[in-house]
Amino acid sequence: MLEKTYRPETVETRLYEAWEQSGAFAADPAGARRPYTIMMPPPNVTGSLHMGHALTFTLQDILIRFERMRGRDALWQPGTDHAGIATEIVVTNQLAEEGKTRGDLGRAAFIERVWAWKAESGGTITRQLRRLGASADWPRERFTMDTGLSAAVRRVFVTLYREGLIYRDKRLVNWDPVMHTVISDLEVDNRETRGKLWHIRYPIEGEPGRYLVVATTRPETMLGDTGVAVHPEDARYADLVGKTVRLPLVGRLIPVVADPYADPEKGSGAVKITPAHDFNDFEVGRRHGLEAINIFDRDAHLNDAVPERYRGLERFVARKKIVADLDAAGFLEKVEDQVSMVPHHDRSGEIIEPWLTDQWFCNAAALAKPAIEAVECGQTVFVPRQWENTFFEWLRNIQPWCISRQLWWGHQIPAWYDRDGNVFVAETGEEAALLAAERHGRPVDLTQDEDVLDTWFSSALWPFSTLGWPDATPELKRYYPGDVLVTGFDIIFFWVARMMMQGLHFMGDVPFRTVYIHALVRDERGQKMSKSKGNIIDPLDLIDRYGCDAVRFTLAGLASPGRDINLSEKRVEGGRNFATKLWNAARYAEINGCAPFGNATPPDFDPRQCRLTVNRWIGGATRDCATGVTAALETFRFDEAAHLLYHFVWGTFCDWYLEFTKPILAGDEAAARAETQATTAWVLARLLCLLHPLMPFLTEELWHELGGAGMLIGAAWPDLPPDLHDPEAAAEMDWIVAAISTIRAIRTEVNVPPAARLPLVVRDADAAAASRIERHREHLLRLARLSDIAAAGTAPAGGLAAVVDGATLILRVGDVIDLAKEKARLAKEIGRLDGDLRKFAGKLANPDFLAKAKPEIIDEQRQREADARRDRDRLQAAYDRIAAG
RNA sequence: GGGCGCGUAGCUCAGCGGGAGAGCACUACGUUGACAUCGUAGGGGUCAGAGGUUCAAUCCCUCUCGCGCCCA
Predict the structure, then answer these.
(1) Residues 6+ positions from A287 with CB-CB distance below 8 Å
(2) What is the rounded distance in angstroms from the CA atom of residue A508 to the CA atom of residue A501?
(3) Residue A96 falls within a domain, yes or no?
């Protein structure tokens, strides 16, 4: 027999191993089933599972298990990402603790060290995914720096280079002066920072004593100024355009130009132009032919392009000195406090320095066009749809993508240089050597580009590189494009857009048909989880304490579209309680001979053949539930699926069906008992199937315990016939539920002790109500705690009246009844109905309503009006009887 | 500044043109061999505000206020 409560810790590991070892997660490329593919977004190889992972992988696993049960050949392609910068930072920090630097080791030793770290910690995240129940096809696990995937990276790089879509260029880039690497625009985090606005006087050449005041948040870059801009329509400065000013501290003459970039409202309205150290200034400089003078070295220390006294100073040290010097020389007009956006590296936290360097770029605009079109014409659809705007917005304004990084951990760029700096791009060094030899007419020495590629360059290829591309593998043919990509909105730009671009370019088709964007997981008060706030909820800790299924069910239930998830432990407790509820229902079924595939259950049982109304009713209700859950999962409404199941299991199956059928199971009518056992077993088996994608462990365990054949993970998804639904049975049982609920409510209202059994008198029952009462007499007696049910033509004394569709129910409570209180209770109810009746009357008397509303709506209103009137009249009669008595 | 989203019960959220819902919390009472991780019942809301469209608005449109996020 099942234990009293479900103990996840005794079940989860055992079942997961059983699934994995049986090959239940494996795709079947050679089979005949239609494929269903989800590419797992590869987590960082050295990372560990956080709440966001728990959400995204739970949702993916739900879809995979659902479609697998629906008969699809499900491939959930797992793997991990080398996460260039993130991993390099981790290992560099480890070295720092040993008092060493990356440079002390040298490139080869450093990379070896990272591989060692990967070997040590790389299994963590995949072990944690297993704890979450993720049914990924593990033997197909890939890593972005695998041999195969690295070859794909080189093939893509070389191809795009030859197509002119990858090129080398000298541009202003985002430079991290501590890590000494460039990063892409997306990796820049603009943070609001309190700073100052310095107003500096630039003397106008040829007009002694006159100054042009410029306002800047970065006075130290003035050493690289090559112009000053004012707005073309700014009358204050109109006469200065075309003149020159003499740069303080430097002495260089620089022109005043008219450019709309200068905002007359901001600061003094005049801005210094430093083309080599500001992205906007770079553009202004280009428009006006201004020189770009680079004043920083790779450490953001001032270089030889500045006056000698400032050379070698770190940028913020230089700032202080320059401000002091300007002040001393009378060039500083004023200083204001100002909050401005300062670019930081999102990983290292360092302040970014815009810096002119040679880097590799990818022509993202060219690749973006097909990606935009594919979403425009619906080849790929975002769910929720509104994220398409975000996608379009970014792709339509996309800038060249800087793909080179001055790191060691990653895919080294397949470009080689000869001594003259000529570049040879090829998939291998040998090939590059051949190209060089051809060019020079003899073999020459080459050195490979030191840089590596942006991590996202390889992730962008994930949907096809994991399937064996560039080889034409059967997997590639079969599983590309994937069906759904499940991910968070924060990587639409980083990853989704780039997979779209590369997929379309190299595979000629989108990488996935649907992109399901889920929300962020926040804490219970809606705050973002972070280490510094100390509000992190660890999914593994939750799994330990509440069980994996409770966590999964909770997350699914909270996954409403377009809304962030505020997770509280109370919710998970609710999920755990639900698991216990289901467990106990199954336990009850087992005790009563209703195990799904036990001896009591004929294998050819068809619930449509049931004779008892209660069994016909639950069969139909199960069908309705299954239909709803299927529709919900098909449309990514995980919340709806969870809620439907919760309410059906708890509110319908446990609260009513199991209660209704207890007397049958305990009774001695063999046929009725057998039918009920079979029905209970049948419903329970379907419920285990329907719940399995959300709660895989609990359902699998129950499946086994109750004698299910094979493994539930491989069972078929319930596809129930429409004629299971029996409207008459549903109406009848709904009536009984309403009658019982009504009687219970009255009892509570007048404080009848729960244990007391009271007689019920039924008055003025119509034929349907009378027969329902007769057929379900036992249910009413037991669940409403009645001693007797009698029909009466006359009103009994001392009764509490209530109306249930077609009958007046009078609960006899004897002499204890307080007549005044009862009159008040009835009057209140009558008053409520009168209010409803006024509303209906108003509507039904409105000619516009009758003329314009849909006929079925009018009928419905009429029916409701009639029902309300009838109920009101019955209550009024009861009231009158008391008043008369 | 541009864009997206959100204000519904004490809290967290569904619903999104015709009867205001769930979970949790709260109150009262607990009975029947699945379950106290439970049962039964109850209280609690001018659906942010103001206009408009409509026979009908929590739902559609406009504006206002408040909050969040993304991009500049």
Answers:
(1) A259
(2) 10
(3) yes
What's A171-228 look like in SS3?
Answer: EEEEEECCCCEEECHHHEEEEEEEEEEEEEEEEECCCCCCEEEEEECCHHHHHHCCEE
Could you tell me where the DSSP H helices lie in A251-314? Answer: 279-288
* Both tokens assigned to A97: 């603790």
List the domain range (segments joined by +) for residue A671.
562-709
Shortest CA to C1' contact from A522: nucleotide:
B12
Distance CA A861 to C1' B11 in A: 36
Considering the domain architecture, whether residues A753 and A880 belong to the same structural domain is answered as: yes
- Measured from the Cβ of residue A363, the count of other Cβ atoms closer than 10 Å reads 16
For Cα atoms A494, A37, A719, give the angle at the middle one, nearest 5 degrees. 135
> Which nucleotides on chain B have any atom < 7 A from a protein Cβ?
3-6, 11-15, 18-19, 22-25, 28-32, 34-42, 54-56, 69-72
Give pLDDT, residue A263: 85
**Distance of A396 CA from B2 C1′ (whole Å):** 14
What distance in Å separates the CA atoms of residue A470 and residue A151, rounded to the nearest whole number? 8
Decide: helix, strand or coil at residue A346.
coil
Q: Which residues of chain A have pLDDT under 50?
A: none
Query: What is the tally of structural domains in chain A?
Result: 4
- What letter does residue A657 receive in the DSSP assignment? I
- Rounded-to-integer distance, Cα A448 and Cα A423, Å: 9
Residues A479 and A582 in one domain: no
Residue A563 structure tokens: 């809304």
In a domain, A233, yes or no: yes
> What pLDDT score does A798 carry?
66
Query: For A517, phi and psi rounded to 5 degrees?
Result: -100, 115
Last residue of a domain, one of A321, A354, A387: A354
Nucleotide nearest to A852 (CA to C1'): B55
Does residue A599 sit in the same domain as residue A746?
no
Nearest nt by C1' to A647 Cα: B22
In a domain, A161, yes or no: no
CA distance A712 to A463: 29
CA distance A325 to A313: 14
Same domain, A249 and A113: no
A233: helix, strand or coil: coil
Protein-to-nucleotide distance from the CA of A829 to the C1' of B8, whole angstroms: 26
Strand nucleotide closest to residue A846 (CA to C1') = B55
Within 8 A by CB and 6+ apart from A30, the residues are A474
Per-residue model confidence (pLDDT) at position A181: 92
Q: For residue A267, what pLDDT is reported?
A: 78
Strand partners for A276: none
- Give the CA A491 to C1' B46 distance in Å: 43
The CA–C1' separation of A442 and B66, in angstroms, is 74
The pLDDT, as a whole number, for residue A817 is: 64
Specify the pLDDT at position A131: 95
Nearest nucleotide to the CA of A753, by C1', is: B29
At residue A534, the pLDDT reads 77
Strand partners, A763: A808
Q: Are A812 and A759 in contact (CB under 8 A)?
A: yes
| ipTM entry | 0.95
Residues pairing with A402 in the sheet: A361
Question: What confidence score (pLDDT) does residue A803 get?
Answer: 87
Residue found under tokens 């505020």 = A566
Q: Is residue A531 part of a domain?
A: no
How does DSSP classify residue A134? -
Taking the alpha carbons at both ends of chain A, their separation in whole angstroms is 58
DSSP state of A240: G
Residue A139 to residue A142: CA distance in whole angstroms: 9
The pLDDT assigned to A752 comes to: 84
- Per the rule left: phi > 0, alpha: psi between -120 and 50, beta: everything else, A508 is left
Q: Are residues A763 and A632 in the same domain?
A: no
Number of residues in chain A? 885
Minimum-distance residue to B40 (CA–C1'): A744
**Nearest in space to A83 (alpha carbons), one of A57, A118, A51, A108:** A118
